[in-house]
Amino acid sequence: MTTPHHPRQNHLLAALPDAEFERLLPHLGLVPMPLAEVLYESGAQLQYVYFPTSAIVSLQYVMENGSSAEIAGVGNEGVVGISLFMGGDTTPSRAIVHTAGYGYRLKAKLLLEEFNRIGGRRAGVLQHLLLRYTQALMTQTSQTAVCNRHHSVDQQLCRWLLLTLDRLPSNELTITQELIASMLGVRREGVTEAAGKLQRDGLIRYSRGHIEVLDRAGLESRVCECYSVVKIEIKRLLTDVAAV
């Protein structure tokens, strides 16, 4: 049976106290987020923010020659469009869906009104929550840069797979090697070789853009420390944040 959609399936929205959540609820629109949909391009003015529930969005930096690399991923733990409440209307990154699913869309103006709301016993909870998430996203961005510079493609692929699995209800994902290579900023041949090693060792099964993880513990034994750094920081910053 298909699980009914609800905004609380996004962890940030789930962490909001009832009063703040009820103010946002009438303005949250459920939207499909198909594979490869571009939510915004580099330099574009943000009209909406997105709270993914089952989709995963890749934040990518795009070079002048058109090549790109992922700087962070956003799933049901977060929000797409942090530059809006950080003081800017645009961002130098592109946001593109790399795992199809659903999410909730909120007009930028409404988020800013709630972000800047003052007065009341629980004033500033959403602001505090979004700022803590921003710190977690900055950690992910920094760790991705370090990982891409110092660790092998095998380790990068393991990190990416594990972070993706953490945001999904199953151990399967649909994505091409070309898209993975684009996000990691490496040649497709490098991803093919790395995925081949993982498949020969029985950790994954890959076929025609479909990846099934067979041995998660095996991936965790091969991944670099970057995965645990990001996972621990997200958990630390977002656990029971609404009670702070």
UniProtKB/TrEMBL annotation:
Gene3D superfamilies: Jelly Rolls, Winged helix-like DNA-binding domain superfamily/Winged helix DNA-binding domain. SMART domains: cNMP (SM00100), HTH_CRP (SM00419). It holds the Pfam family HTH_Crp_2. Residues 151-217 form the HTH crp-type domain. InterPro entries: cNMP-bd_dom, cNMP-bd_dom_sf, Env_Response_Regulators, HTH_CRP, RmlC-like_jellyroll, WH-like_DNA-bd_sf, WH_DNA-bd_sf. GO terms for cellular component: cytosol. It comes from the Bacteria. The keyword Transcription applies. Keywords: DNA-binding, Transcription, Transcription regulation. The keyword rRNA-binding does not apply. GO terms for molecular function: DNA binding; DNA-binding transcription factor activity. PANTHER family: CRP FAMILY TRANSCRIPTIONAL REGULATORY PROTEIN, HTH-TYPE TRANSCRIPTIONAL REGULATOR ARCR. This is Crp/Fnr family transcriptional regulator. It comes from Sulfuriferula plumbiphila.
